[in-house]
Amino acid sequence: MALSAYFTMPFFCTIVLVQLIGTPISKYHGKINKKMKLRFISMALLFNLSTCFADSISFESLTPIASQSKVQKKYDFLVPEKNTLVQFWASWCHSCSGFMYDLDKLAREVQSPYLAINIDENVKDAIDYLSKHPLYKRHPDRYWYDQNEVIETTLNITTVPTVMVIDSNKKVLWVTRGHLNSDDFLSLRRWLKKDSQHKVGQANEN
Q: Taking residues 105-120, what's their average pLDDT?
């Protein structure tokens, strides 16, 4: 999925919502000032522009879910000259668990690092969920928690699963949201097999 469409979609949705809610609200609270509408739209635009042009992802807010994790640094999962598979998931997302097996298989096939970032409001929900998950027992260092929703907010993660490919410089190369289809897995395979020298601008291919 093209990054431009992924990050600008919320902006256009905000414009539509402002227009839609403007009329019914005005019936009860008077006319909505045009400046107010422009203010909402400007805020949405600035938010999305800051996301689109962010040079890289900051993993400073991540903490390992495993209490005895062997990972000492937040960037140990990034391998030089290797692209990394990143999945955002939640304990209440039933499809996330199924895709974990598919993504694990793909990551092993192409020998790519695989990072699973949980976005639950309470990390205890993630811990309880993973305690019964076979992949967690095999790869505990793979699972991380996004404290204070920093990455979730920065990348505007509104849907899970959201799957990304990032390079060793933490730049987003490819992203898709929601249910993954066969075309998504083909794109994932292509991007994971590419080295980290490819530029973000080339991520517009499907």
A: 94
State the sign of the Cα–Cα–Cα–Cα dihedral 181, 183, 184, 186: positive
Residues 187, 85: contact at Cβ < 8 Å? no
- What token pair was written down for 89? 């998931």
2.120.10.30, 3.40.30.10, 3.90.550.10, 3.40.50.1980: CATH of 62-204: 3.40.30.10
Under the banding of pLDDT at 50, 70 and 90, the label for residue 170 is confident
Crossing angle of helices 182-193/94-110, nearest 10°?
Answer: 40
pTM: 0.69
CA distance 187 to 184: 5
Instruction: Please state at what angle helix 34-52 crosses helix 3-29, rounded to 10 degrees.
Output: 160
Domain ranges (residues) in the chain: 3-52, 62-204
Task: At 185, give phi and psi (nearest 5°).
Answer: -70, -35
d(CA 44, CA 40): 6
